[in-house]
Amino acid sequence: MRTVFRGRAIVDGGERPAAVLVDGERIAAVLPIDAPLDAVEVRPAADEVLIPGLVDTHVHVNEPGRTEWEGFASATRAAAAGGVTTIVDMPLNSLPPTLDAESLAIKRKAADGQCAVDVGFWGGAVPGNEYALPELVAAGAFGAKCFLLDSGVPEFPPLPDPRTALRVLGDAVLLAHAEDAALIGSTRGPRYGDFLASRPAAAEDSAIARLLDAARETGGRVHVVHLSSAAALPLLARARAEGVRVTVETCPHYLALAAEEIPDGDTRFKCCPPVREEANRDLLWQGLADGVIDMVVSDHSPATPELKGTGDFGSAWGGIASLQIGLAVVWTEARRRGWSLAAVVDRMATAPADLVGLRHKGRIAPGAHADLAIVAPDETFTVGALAHRHPTTPYAGRTLHGVVRGTWLRGERVGPDPRGRLIERGER
After folding, report:
1. How many angstroms from the chain centroid is the CA of residue 373?
2. Which in 129, 148, 299, 356 has the greatest CB count within 10 A?
3. Closest CA to 410 of 115, 139, 150, 121
4. Dihedral of the CA atoms 182, 266, 401, 299 (nearest 10)?
């Protein structure tokens, strides 16, 4: 089937009128808007923009084992509702964690037939499994994730020294949750200021420095997940200038929230590393503009309301649910700062796709998968019911810009029947 989308579109890093011709599952051509074509017409409205489907490479689905927190059916429906057409699932919080080829097969079996969007998988690096990582990558994992401190779940222990993992992974990337346990204090109670003080920026900066040293020594690829400390930006910029193979992500909550506005006792806002002050948030935006931060992904990490909403920042689960509304959260703040929609799409679609080698996703270009979304960037909505398994989110009741009015996966509009595929490293 041939379909043509005629209207404003994000193409080649900018927004312009275009006719995007889809033939089957892929984009066949990007042509002038008035090009004559024998195809079914889809005409976005005057207030709508055609964007590539977003790629979210940091999603905790938690199935199997903790499906009551989130599962593939609910997570991928939420993704599609938010214009996300590809997710990559994290290796922890499911049982078993994805630590070898066998557990990857278990994860894939759990996801098979449930997914509304395409789904890939990260493996995990923990003490004792480093030499299993090449087999895990060969089985289709996009790389491996490690924690440099306690992960919060006992079955996924921290990896104090990432050098062996970096050596055996070769060109596959090692993702790291970078905080230094020696610089983190304990906290209890409802005061957000106490929780923030217990996880200072210095803990991130120290762990990132250690990770960069390991990458220098081994020549391996490292990726810093969910950067919240802007103080680490000069360190990261210098390492990249020296040739260290490092990429960096941040998340919607670090770009849209600020410590000064978080109410005491509202543990919906708890995440690790924590949301920091407004001045730090401004510097993260500058790091994103300068290219030191490469991308924005959700770190969607939900839990049951009983675990998340305890009112005690010490005991509550640390994770923020935002998979469905990540684009709107980031776009609302970005437009206030003078950013273009194209720049936001680059950081939320193209850059994450490139991280995992999916050059046929995250862009509107000939040969790419016809993964698309139609967005009304100026329309507002109030965050209410979401397709996530649980509605607990710090964005509840917020008014955001950017309504996703339709999502297409490989040329077909996403509907009630799951059409998502399980994807692997090296796919084209």
Report:
1. 17
2. 299
3. 115
4. 30
The residues, ordered by sequence, that sit 6+ positions from 228 with a Cβ below 8 Å of its Cβ are 201, 204, 250, 254, 273, 274, 275, 276, 280, 284
CA dist., res. 81 & res. 358, Å (int): 21
Give the pLDDT confidence score for residue 398 in this predicted structure. 97
Which tokens belong to 78? 């939420």
Tokens of 297: 């992904």
pLDDT digits (tens, 9 = 90+) for 362-408: 999 999 999 999 999 999 999 999 999 998 999 999 999 999 999 99
Q: How far apart are CA 311 and CA 202, in angstroms?
A: 26
How far apart, in whole angstroms, are the C-alpha atoms of residue 236 and residue 247?
9
Mean model confidence pLDDT for the chain: 97
pTM for the model:
0.97
Using alpha carbons, list the distances in angstroms from residue 332 to 65, 135, 247, 328, 375. Answer: 35, 42, 25, 6, 13
